[in-house]
Amino acid sequence: MQGLPFHIILSLMMVLAVPAAWPEGPFVTAAWADDDDGDSDSDSDSDSDRDDDDDDDDDDDDGRGNGRGPRSGGEGSFLDRLFGRPSPAPAAPAPQPQPLATRAANEIVVLDLSAADLAALTAAGYEVLGEVQIAAAGSTLRRLRVPTGTTLETALANIRQLPSGQAADFNHFYRSNQGIVPACTGLHCAFFDQVGWVPPVAEQGACHQITARIGLIDTGINPEHEAFDGGRLTVLEIDGQERTPSGAQHGTAVAAILIGSRTGRAHGLLPQADLLAVDAFHRAGRDERSDVFSLVQAMDRLAEAEVNIINMSLAGPHNVLLEQMVERLTEERILIVAAAGNDGPRAAPVFPGGYAPVLTVTAVDGSGRIYRRAGRGPHVDLAAPGVEVWTAASIRGVRTKTGTSFAAPFVTAAAAMLMSARPELAAAEVKAFLQDTALDLGEAGPDDVFGAGLVQFAPICAAPANSAPALLD
């Protein structure tokens, strides 16, 4: 370009600087795709802002900003080539968050290990980090540190080869299913109506005389929140370690859906019920999690307190100790209600929701549409409101919450109402009744998306005392 006369270069610059003027008409109006996320914005998420669900703060999903700078093939790059200027280096991609750990780095948890086998492991370099008595199992639960230089896989295989080492597994982590916190769009009443909730008044008799005791395993709870004024909330302790306490956001929200005061803004489904809560979570840096050592203790603590139902709005990997504890509590007529998880429709089942005895709950919005991040599969039993549900904030006031975590307490409340009216029913029969009386959603009959359908409260009060639910396969 250095050999071109100056007037030619100037002419080229003037042509490039003047944008083309097109007449207005039907082919030049702005248009956005009509997405299926239920909001009225021009993005592809389910909130009411103008951004997508990517991790940057622009309005695209590729991390490049607002598109005003030079781009490949645009005017900026052409002028750079015209005058021999070097093109700017492409922006580095935004750093992606590291995946959270799924288990403790050097720990094995084992139940019912004999004294001889424990002595052999100790001699081999294993260290007992903690041990507690599990009344439901009639044995001792131990947390062992693996010797330096031994992989977890090798350690687990070696322990399971011992005569009393079959009930051993990694110390898996479990996390609350908080999901996203979208914009507020409604009040709790709409969700209560959606499930046919019947207000607890004296005229309804035994149906609302809640005698079933509800257990909750979650993060911390703020008992001073106005949602629990006059309520029957008891916070139980477990033999914990010196760990940083968990926050109170998730646990307070779930507890308020269950027993929030009728006089406050965080109105609960069963404000007169007994709720016994265990904080099994702790903080590790920026991560808030539980582990199987704590979960088994929490489940045992609630069983000792003679609860009838346990709400577990949490999820993690399969673990043999967790599975055995679920089976033991089910045999003791304790129903476990768990969240289906928020890892997306193609994700593998999460646990404890993936275990057969558990009543596993997915989330729908106010129109009965499935929560787009909810887990799916044959293990899903029921659906309940879980998108932008009004409940208590951690310190004061209310806010909306989204996720399968917040759908689970709707089903827990329905189960508590049924077990109070029909105390003779076993856990499996309670599960079958709620499935039989659910409002079918999606494909006809039970399916992998909604399970048997949307839980309904009204049939609980209408059911005759001698009606026997049919157990579903």
TrEMBL record:
Pfam families: Peptidase_S8. Residues 1-20 form the signal peptide. Residues 66-76 have a biased composition (Gly residues). The keyword Transferase does not apply. One of its GO terms (molecular function) is serine-type endopeptidase activity. Keywords: Hydrolase, Protease, Serine protease, Signal. The active site is at D218 (charge relay system), H250 (charge relay system), S405 (charge relay system). Residues 33-62 have a biased composition (Acidic residues). Residues 214-453 form the Peptidase S8/S53 domain. Residues 29-98 are annotated as: Disordered. Belongs to the peptidase S8 family. This is Peptidase S8. It comes from Roseobacter cerasinus.
